[in-house]
Design goal:
By secondary structure, this protein is an alpha/beta fold. The protein is 43% helix and 23% strand. It has helices spanning 3-15, 18-25, 29-43, 59-82, 98-115, 128-136, 188-193, 208-220, 233-241, 285-297, and strands at residues 48-51, 54-57, 90-96, 119-125, 142-148, 160-174, 199-202, 225-229, 246-250, 259-262, 270-277. The longest helix has 24 residues, at 59-82.
Amino acid sequence: MDPQRLRLLLELSRRGSMRAVAEELGHTTATVSQQLAVLAREAGATLLEPEGRRVRLTPAGRRLADHAVTVLAALEAARADLDPDGEPAGTVRVAGFATAVRRSLVPVLAKLSAEHPAVGVRIHEHEPAEAFALLATDEIDLALVYDYTLAPVAFDPALRVTPLWSAPWHLGVPAAHNAAGETAEDDAPAVFRRFACAGWIVNSRNVADEQVVRTIASLAGFEPRIAHRADSLELVQDLIVAGLGVGLLPADGRLVGGVRRVALRRPEVALRSYAVTRPGRDSWPPLRLVTRLLTASA
């Protein structure tokens, strides 16, 4: 049923005559009568009955007018929700890797709560491949993903990609490892070469850091032996402390006792984070607001 015809019926229930409805909505009385006749055919019910020289709503017409209140209100709410200039309201579903959630998303939640209480955020912790899959099936609105300078992601050109921040990564090694011969001038292949015989620890849910390790190891002239796969950076450090291998760690992250970092230069290794949305979604006010706050905080 056409919403505009439902509006005519609702106005008729309130004003009592087709002439009053026509004057209120800027139609002719004949147009109102014709449109209500079409609505009756769409509804498959008699909506009006004569009452002297006027008409009144039948019981079916009154019931449909009651439904029209709910239907028209829901449509108006939908228009307001989708209005790019409207006040943001709704729940933004976000999937992202843990570092981005902690570093980018959590800090803006207090601002959202204080200044935009009608906007909520539902958080799912996922690695990039998982987040992209959820975005493709419309199970999330925003993906927080990453790549490395030595392992760039080929983004789908149809996606809307907003760079957020980047952070250098170094090599985490046992603190007790002999640092003799290390100099500030060592390039990344020289650093890797000193650990050519070590086991290497890489991510269990993403291959990006393994690509970085293999790229630099190739420059150093050896093939790394991947000994362990771990998603948690805390677990990576525990494995390093236990002498079970070496692995990439963020240069600005907290270190546990027994682990030290060795800087990687020429080539540098940097993790780059992005906010990614599907085409057409970036105009939705709540999503646009969250993306703007993420960019500002970065």
